[in-house]
Amino acid sequence: PEGDHYRTRLTHTLEVTRLARTVGRALRLNEDLCEAIALGHDLGHTPFGHAGERALNEIYGPGFRHYEQSLRVVDCIEKDGRGLNLCQETRIGILAHTKGHPEESREAVVVRLCDHVAYLNHDLDDAMRAGIVAESELPEIIVKRLGTRNSRRINSLVDNIIRTSSAGNVGISDDMQEVWDVFHEFLYDRVYHNPVAKGEEAKVENILRGIWEHYCRYPEKLPDDFRGIMERDGLERAVTDYVSGMTDDYAIYQYGEIFIPMAWSVK
Fold this sequence. Notes:
Layout: H1 9-26, H2 31-40, H3 49-59, H4 66-77, H5 88-96, H6 106-129, H7 140-146, H8 150-165, H9 174-192, H10 195-199, H11 201-217, H12 227-233, H13 235-244, H14 248-259
Helix pairs in contact: 1-2, 1-6, 2-5, 2-6, 3-11, 4-5, 5-6, 6-8, 6-9, 11-13, 11-14, 12-13
């Protein structure tokens, strides 16, 4: 939704980082590793969120997944293409934050759980602010187990992770898993698949496809930062890197600059 009081990718990342450090400290894990993974976990997200990711996955031949792009940002794009030389635990944690990895650390699991805690609660809070969902519509199990306030819900989930994980593997309890699943299902039904939001997805693909094809047609217009990537990895890869790194507002601005005629005056 439009407005200055809704969460952004940056505020989400900062919240995941805070939660991950809190859980990591309580479990006596490597807090710095938790923070590094959390700060890098969403670097590969596209403009327009998951709608943009789906669009780029259709547009770019080899396919596009934001968690792979996050790793590409730190390995191949930062520092003029030289990468950040991160340790393997951080790299695997960034790559694994969505689907897991056989070599992932306990810190990586902490970040993945905290990512879910943050986006579930923040997306619900934003949806309620926007009038998409009313408090009275929340499933009873969520209200009973987690409470009605955003901070209470977050604290309940974080506390469960800490209490459940202190005995061994990082995770949530079986009874909280039921609440977790209901929470996910409710948001997908009422928020993520909301007709208003879904109705905008065709526009997202049109914008990103238009920009992507424009720069593939006119590679000389790519910013200098991406020329080296183009020479090393190919034109389509460089254009995909450039487009995926845009914000919503900048993608809309770029589309307007490329395709919308500007007014001009006659003297």
